[in-house]
Amino acid sequence: MSGFKMCRMVWVGLLLSAMTLSAQEKLPIFLEVEAGVERLCSPSIQSVFPTGANVKMGPVFALAEEWRLRLRPQAGVKLFFNEIDEWVTEQLLIIKVGGQVSYDAFYIGQVTFFPYLAADFNWVSNYDAESDGGTGEDESITYSDSYLKGSGFSQEVGMRIQLQKWYVKMGYEFFKPRLKARRTIITDDLASGYLTPKSHPFVFNTFNITIGATLGL
Amino acid sequence: MKQVYKRIGVALAGIAFLLGCKGDGTLLDLYPIDPIVNPDVGILIQENRFMNVRLDGRQRISGITEKGVFSTNDRFQSFDFESHPWQGVQGVVAFGDDLIVHAPNDGLSFSLRYSTDNGLTWATYDKPVLDEADLAAGSVSVVQLLVSANRLVWLLCQQHNGADRRMLLYRVDLEAESSQKLFSKAHAIGVDASFSGGESGWLLYAEQDEPEGRIHVLKTTDGGHSWSEGAMLDGVEHPAIEPLDARTLLVYDTAGNVFYSADGGVSFAPVAIVGGRISRCRAVSANIVYALLASGVAKSIDGGRTWVILDAEAHGIKISGSAMHFYNERQGIVYGDDKLFLTDDGGAHWDILVYPYDYVIR
Hints:
Structural class of chain B: mainly beta
Number of helices of chain A: 3
Oligomer: heterodimer
Strand content of chain B: 35-45%
Number of helices of chain B: 3
Protein name (chain B): BNR repeat-like domain-containing protein
Number of domains of chain A: 1
Structural class of chain A: alpha+beta
Organism (chain B): Parapedobacter pyrenivorans
Helix content of chain A: 10-25%
Largest sheet of chain A: 8 strands, antiparallel, barrel
Strand order of the largest sheet of chain A: 1-2-3-4-6-8-9-13
Radius of gyration of chain B: 27 Å
Shape of chain A: elongated
Distance between the termini of chain A: 35 Å
InterPro entries (chain B): WD40/YVTN_repeat-like_dom_sf
């Protein structure tokens, strides 16, 4: 069974059990939407992509005593940018699907602290985006074929600090996917006298800070 | 959906641009890439070229370039190069075991010198090779030099006297400092000579008055003292001999014709190699013979009677060159002026050790 299939089964299992519990016990379901910034930790990769951003969302199922355990199936994207020139930007796109578990550990005043764990399956693609120079709705962007692409699991640990419906998250994600180079790159390299492996692992560990909101459904 | 994706992208880009996103290089720059050949080998082929290369052992390769001598014990991962201009530019050169012989033209005759240190220093053979009578009969030039064991050197020479031609064969013993005229044939144009061991040998010549492309074979079984007429071959261009043993030999030409003889050159049977021009044949043993084609390599495992064209390619490069040297039946090199390939398995697979890639020729 592939890793992605296993992840999908776990995800569906969590969702179903949470929904069943929610239906039986009339537990609340929320929707969380968040966006933040990412910083790659590997110095060599950070030199290429100094910064990135993320957007995630997913329904939250509150469980356990006083709804302190939160299960969140989630989906999101991460995008890292490298400005090649005025019109061309290299991008590293990571599309994620997975889940997050957090626990209402303690609170100080109105601020609640949720340590969390997350696991996602990720699809990674590295390409160039070229703008035609337009602005706003008139801007047209063309994307190159992927230079590198691959997939893999990631794990994230962190702390969520919540004040009413708003929260701030700080986390560290462990992610080491194996990316494959485009076939034409390998053949072009070979013609130039270089041997290029079909795939290579990259360390995309990131530190992230995210702002989000918990919305009632 | 496309609009949603675009807006998410614009939002993420906005966040990132606020923080700055001018990177250094690209992610692809971090993808590993290994040069197929050591970039340092450029010194051997840039404004330089291979003259003679030998596979001396499983890993050791040594040779001479136009500008120096080199050796490597790890297949050019590292190598030593000693700069020393090649001095054998003019005249005929032959390479043997630890011996290089050079016969430059010298007036109406030639001189003979040799080196035992890969051309770094040269000694002149200062005894006369030609006698007074030969010199008086016309100018003499060397057609081919052969180096055999015990520092014996064979000189196939051509004498010109007006429109008349004469083929001469000399043997020089560098150890004993003696020379001997072994054979002389009037109206003959020497083409090639080769020996198998010390006694059996063959000469190819053309009669000066016969149509072009007709070649006669001479054979000796007593070290060149006496010669007998063998077969006559028609329609060959620039033929050469490759002996396999005392009775078996191949005659091949640049047009791709191959002739096989199992009776010491008395008769020949044509052999088919579908590969076009043959630049070199090398018998590694009595059975294993390699042929260097215009592009590619052919191999025979039955002493040259049947051949197969090898799928000789390395990293998309067709194996080609002008010379080859084999350490044993399976391990050998093919090289040209600016490239060198190696096989460890009898030609089934090849490695590129030297090639004029852009990063080599800087």
